[in-house]
Automatic annotation (TrEMBL):
InterPro entries: GNK2, GNK2_sf. This is Gnk2-homologous domain-containing protein. Pfam families: Stress-antifung. PANTHER family: CYSTEINE-RICH REPEAT SECRETORY PROTEIN, OS01G0342200 PROTEIN. The lineage of its organism: Eukaryota, Viridiplantae, Streptophyta, Embryophyta, Tracheophyta.
Amino acid sequence: MLRFTDDEQSLSSVSNGTEAAEMLLERVVKLMNSMAGLATSGSPRSTILLYATGEAGFGEQGVSTVYGMVQCKLDLTGPQCKSCLDGIIGQMRKLFSNDSSQGQPSSFLIGGRLIGVRCNLRYEKELFFEETNDTIKIDMPKSTCCFTAYNLH
């Protein structure tokens, strides 16, 4: 099953839509692969999470952060989960591109879900999960916030 968050909301512009869409696609795929690695890591069965959440910084077209989640059914082993996630991550370019007949991201949807029988993924421009210490953060912008200390004496 394939579900788009908002059919009308895609990342494209007249001049650089293809470049921006390709950059977002690469960032989302990088995030998904990182989360798939975390979700399936661990030796004993009890340490394998079979899910992961993450966020990636992306500054084009007003989208500053992309949030993602991957998840597998609990009856899968780590390698089975990884194989399932790799399969659906590999389908993202074809399924989430507006020009899916060519597989080229002329515009790439800012949010979407791939729901398989044994695993699924989701990415959005809005936070849709509770962040924890295990949430992966990649390519996040450096904090530009600072403060000035004043000596009042």
